[in-house]
User: Fold this.
Amino acid sequence: MGEAVAIISVSASAVVGIGGLVAAAWGSSRERRWQSQEERTKELRGVLDRACEKLTQQLVVLDQAHREFSTSGAANPMTQQLLVETEKQLVLECNRLAVRRGSHTPEYVALGACREAATRVSLLLNEMATGAAPAQRGAYSTLWDDVLTAEKRFLDVASDALTWEEPAPFWRRLRQPQRAL
Assistant:
C-alpha cells in the first residue's frame, strides 16, 4: 500500500510539473505573438504617419502654387521645385507602405488615389501656367474636391488599419490598473 501511494504521489507530481511546463510554454508563445503584433502595429503607425505628413506637405504646396498662379499668373519656380520634391517623397512613402502591407491593401490603394488626384491638380496647374488649358480654370475646384475626398478616404483606411483590438494576454490585463466607472 505504501508503494502505491508513493507511485501515485510521484505520478501526480509529474503530471502537475508537465502541466505547468505546458501552460508556461503556451503563455510564453501567446505573449510573443502579442508583442510581435504590437511591434508591427507601431511600425505601421510610423509608416502611415510619415505618408500622411508627406501628403499634407504636398497639398500645402499645391495650394500655395494655386494661390501664386491666381495672383500672378504663374507659380514661383521655388514652389514648382518644392512641388516636384513633395511628389517624389510621397511616391517613396507609397512604396514604403506597399512593402509593409502589399500593393493590394486598402491603405496603399487609398494613398495611391491621393497621389494620383494630387498629380492631376499639379498637371492642371502646369497646363494653366503655360496657357495650354485656359478653359480648365473651373476644373481646378473639381479636381481639388477629388483630392480632399481621396485624402479623407486614406485617413479613414489608415485609422482602420491601426485599430487592432486583440486583447492583451490575461496576465497583462491583471497587471493593468483598473479604471473606476
In short: The mean pLDDT is 79. DSSP finds five helices and no strands in the chain. Residues 44 and 100 are 7 Å apart (CA to CA).
